[in-house]
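ingest -> validate -> predict -> emit
validate: passed (alphabet ok, no gaps, 188 aa)
predict: started
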Amino acid sequence: IPFFLICSDGETFISADDLRINLWNLEISNQSFNIVDVKPANMEDLTEVITSAEFHPKHCNMLAYSSSKGSIRLIDMRQSALCDTHSKLFEEQDDPGTKSFFTEIIASISDIKFAKDGRHILSRDYMTLKLWDINMDSGPVATFQVHEHLRPKLCDLYENDSIFDKFEFCLSGDGLRVATGSYRYGLS
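emit:
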């Protein structure tokens, strides 16, 4: 299981892998509830996987999760036991003129986090860090380039599998600063 997240209610947590997110109650250790399931009936039909998840910092019934296709889904666990529909979908529309073989690979989100205020979500993909406003699902409100200098080298990065590296980030306690890893020496 790649990750666990504890909810702010202190009673529940989630466990997640590439295909499912399960909700657990600390009082019931032998049973979980599947709340997100992206596994298709036929695995040959698999088009995306879950890459990260995060509880809303103020509303423990809200959960955001990201995918390998570069989208973030915000779900309200009060709507249904299995959250196979989302309340909001955040994704950047591709410019058809710039689409390449690498577009989907570099769009895969490796980490997401809510800002302290709960109104913003930050996401990290291979090339960028993006800031999303949960009240505006038309696109990110800001994009910060991290690896733009690597764009001309995507073929080489693909050949040595570096293009599949995943980068995380962290927020400062006041929520005003972000640190993320990169190939350069130091933090960006």
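The first strand starts at residue 3 and ends at 6.
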